[in-house]
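Consider a concrete sample entry:
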Amino acid sequence: MLCLLTCFGLSNISLANKIDYFSLKEYKRYFFDEYNKYRYSTVENNILESFNILKVSNEKKQGEIFLDVLENDVKSWNMEYVFYVKKNSINNFLSIYRTDILNEVLVDYGFKLKHSKYMYLNEVDLGLVLKSKINEYYLNLNAVHNFSYNFFDFKKYNIKKEMYNINGAVNLEANIGNNFKILPSINLAYIYDFSHDFIDQNKSLIKVKKGFDISLGAGIKLEYEYIKDFKLKIGSSYIFSKIIFKKDKYEIFKKNLVNDISQNQIHMVSIYLNANIKDIHNIKAILSYNKSPILTLSYGINW
């Protein structure tokens, strides 16, 4: 009997309708470990994009926006290419969006196409981007929402699977100061899995259950802005996020998996440089750290 349990990947017996992650043999934990890393990275990426990468493309001070309305001098279309790399992951995306003024609020809205390469996964995202600058209340709002297609290829254990999810993040930021700024913010991120099931290398049925993970956090930026013939921003930031709602994600041997070692918190620090030349060219460089370094480079153009 003990031999039979070991062959099926169990090191001890779970009597309830739950099974402990640590009761599984190491090779049985493999998929859960890798998928948890992917989920954590997805939340991290979305928070990074909404907090540091996605910015209103046409930065204006209080009052300038009204002159632009009168003179019809708002750049209407924007395109941005972003590349960021970290340990075991390369991400790049192209976003195209339009700038409008709605009730004296500067709004960018559009879509992005993103490709990510992880150690054992290829991901393609089709995303919606919303960026707004509410001058009257000195607020910035950035949001990104993605539909993600993932293809897993765990060659070590001969696991191949196509999966889908919806994910995103929203960041609301206060804009305090003139040339030297303090920007406190709050953020919310989510990932929703559709249900999936597949057979692993030992012919065991694994189910990824549908449902949300939701995280809530806060951040702060210290930023200096230099304005002459071009605009230059230099700053540093810190952001924290913690999962506040988490579903039971997996089922194996027809039991819910508990105590899996998914990570629940993000602590990210960054230094960054943003340059806007003639209100047309946008250049960004960001160096972040959250367990490992993340380098972000981007170029955008307004027309």
